[in-house]
Write a structure and sequence with these properties.
about 475 residues, alpha/beta, FAD/NAD(P)-binding domain, Enolase-like, domain 1, seven-stranded mixed sheet, five-stranded parallel sheet, 24 strands
Length: about 475
């Protein structure tokens, strides 16, 4: 053993690097192991690059449609190489920031592939070099990788995961996307705006199936309006190569359907990245491919913890970061303040989508008596100014106490506004308490006030419901 630390963290993504910095700030001698660039999937191959491309493609589409605001723009074009350069520069700046933070806080960075060994040891392999380190506590935060289903043809060269899609140097002429979740609809938004013919094939009855039903319905309508071909309740049978095209065959309404494109994107989700994570004789308890942990993220191995995409739950960068802080605070003998059960979910389509807490469907499934307040954003002044697509703000409150149980939003800046509802759900605030604060006019955020007022029957700008 070359050196011993208080805490070693394997993986420098949003869960790992945040945990490392927090641990160092709390006085732990901390090391972090990473065989790629710091920032993990989020900064390098996921959230940040995807959202940069969403922003660039949305800006291109908005300029093309500027005539509706009385602004004429001719010969509007995009340079995909420059879009990629902008995306990579954004990633580079954030990664450099993380590296500087780790260094400034005294975290030892161990470059190489980290493997958990017995007796609380970690081996780090980089090229032909191999080093072994010990720790009092170990946190596994190795993240996830794209999931590829065992479907015939998904190993063909033109079938891509999100990792390979980011590496394309040109916009595809056409793209079939297998899967209709968050990754799928965000990439569909990007490439459709850039002129690519996009087809989505989703096995479930609706897009983004884990979100509010009305969000799914509205999103499908908007994406179709933008020329995206959508097939739901469609079971993919396989992919075949036909010259320079790839044909995806699926069953929809008991009929065989084929969709061909230059590339096929497999966007059915992600799975834990445990490749090479465990050394000889190291066999922690697993649950359906994920590390089994208790409520404090302890694995079945003494003093070994796991967070983020390695464990059961939502695969989100902000959740992994929160879990990392939670574990480190527990190790320091502190009582964590954050409520890990209240997790906002965001989709960066246009309009944006965000949700937190219970949907109306969730409440009904649990037998909860609720009231639902809703405001259609087409009546919002800021939305009218910017001519947004049809959207809404919906809030679910307990029928007896008016405590806010959840909220769902589909509108401009929804991903920024959802934090207010997250605070409300985590602190069991009532609609009345949230209404104590006035919201500026004109803002998209006024829709929050309207939905809250509608939930308790005091809406001003909502047409009264007809009495039966």
């Amino acid at each position: 053993m070359e050196q011993k630390f208080d805490i070693i963290i394997i993986g420098a993504g949003p869960g790992g690097y945040v945990a490392a910095i927090k641990a160092a700030k709390l006085g732990f001698a901390t090391a972090i192991v990473e065989d790629r660039r710091v920032g993990g999937t989020c900064l390098n191959r996921g959230c940040i690059p995807a959202k940069a491309m969403v922003h660039a493609s949305s800006l291109y589409r908005e300029i093309q449609e500027a005539e509706r605001f009385g602004v004429s723009a001719s010969d509007v074009r995009y340079d995909y190489e420059k879009i990629i350069a902008y995306k990579e520069a954004t990633t580079e700046k954030l990664c450099q920031g993380v590296e500087q933070l780790l260094k400034a806080n005294g975290v030892t960075f161990l470059a190489g592939k980290g493997t958990l060994e017995q007796n609380k040891e970690v081996t780090v392999v980089s090229g032909e070099e191999k080093h072994t380190y010990g720790a009092d506590k170990i946190i596994l935060a190795a993240g996830s990788k794209p999931l590829v289903l065992p479907i015939p043809g998904l190993d063909l060269p033109g079938v891509l995961t999100s990792d390979e899609l980011f590496q394309l140097k040109e916009v595809p002429d056409s793209l079939v996307i297998i899967g209709g979740g968050v990754i799928s609809v965000e990439f569909a938004t990007v490439f459709a705006a850039l002129g690519c013919k996009v087809t989505i094939v989703e096995a479930m009855p609706r897009l983004v199936p884990n979100m509010d039903k009305e969000i799914s319905q509205n999103l499908k309508m908007i994406l179709k309006k933008r020329g995206i071909d959508i097939h739901t309740s469609a079971a993919v049978q396989g992919v075949q190569q036909d010259g320079e095209q790839y044909t995806c065959t699926f069953i929809e309404k008991e009929k065989e359907v084929k969709a061909s494109a230059q590339y096929v994107l497999c966007a059915v989700g992600r799975c834990p990245n445990t490749d090479g994570l465990f050394g000889e004789g190291v066999e922690p308890v697993m649950e359906r491919g994920r590390l089994g942990v208790d409520e404090d993220f302890k694995t079945s191995m003494e003093d070994v913890y796991a967070i983020g995409d390695l464990v059961k739950g939502m695969q989100l960068a902000h959740l992994a970061s929160a879990q990392g802080i939670y574990v480190v605070e527990k190790l320091a003998g502190k009582t964590p303040e954050i409520d890990l059960s209240v997790v906002p979910g965001c989709v960066y389509t246009d309009p944006e989508i965000a949700s937190v807490g219970m949907t109306e469907e969730d409440a009904k499934a649990l037998g909860r008596d609720v009231k639902v307040g809703k405001f259609i954003m087409s009546a919002n002044g800021k939305s009218l100014i910017t001519q947004e697509e049809r959207g809404f703000v919906k809030v679910v409150v307990c029928a007896e106490t008016d405590v806010i149980l959840g909220a769902q939003m589909m509108c401009a800046r929804a991903t920024d506004m959802i934090g207010e509802f997250g605070t409300a759900v985590a602190n069991r605030l009532t609609a009345g308490q949230l209404l104590k604060s006035m919201r500026a006019h004109p803002t998209y955020n006024e829709g929050v006030t309207e939905a809250l007022e509608d939930a308790i029957g005091e809406a001003i700008h909502v047409m009264p419901k007809k009495k039966r």
